Amino acid sequence: MTLIVIALVAFSIVLDVIGQLCFKIGLDRLPELEGGFRLNAFWGQVFQAPMLWAGIGAYVIEFFIWLEALSRAPLSLLFPAAALAYCGVVYAGKVFLGEHVSRRRWMGTLVITLGVLLVCIAGA
After folding, report:
1. At what angle do helices 84-97 and 3-29 cross, to 10 degrees?
2. Are 89 and 58 in contact (CB under 8 A)?
3. pTM of the model
4. pLDDT tens by residue, 61-104
5. How far is Cα 112 from Cα 99, in angstroms, rounded to an integer?
6. Which of 21, 70, 75, 108 has its CA 20 to 30 A from that of 36?
7. DSSP, res 35
8. Alpha-carbon dihedral 48, 39, 97, 117, rounded to 10 degrees
């Protein structure tokens, strides 16, 4: 992978993590609905939630970054590398949302990271 492709994939991963954080924070900030789940009221709330729109914006930008990366490197190399977003989301959930991350989940995250390294080293 060239330095440009690495930067594109890294930027894509960061935007993916930001998007997921925005979605989670945005949904957590929505007020609870009386009388259980009502679809129309829920969608009305969603369309008025700025953090959800920020998440959508991050995904739109990520889409174009991803297309640029795909134009420069094989999908069989890029897609496994993009799996590092899973690791980033676990870390961001811990740091920014205060979520508890079990030892088993950290081990799984490490396995994903090692797998990505193997794919990237083999693809070089």
Report:
1. 40
2. no
3. 0.87
4. 999 999 999 999 999 889 988 999 999 999 999 999 999 999 99
5. 20
6. 21
7. T
8. -100
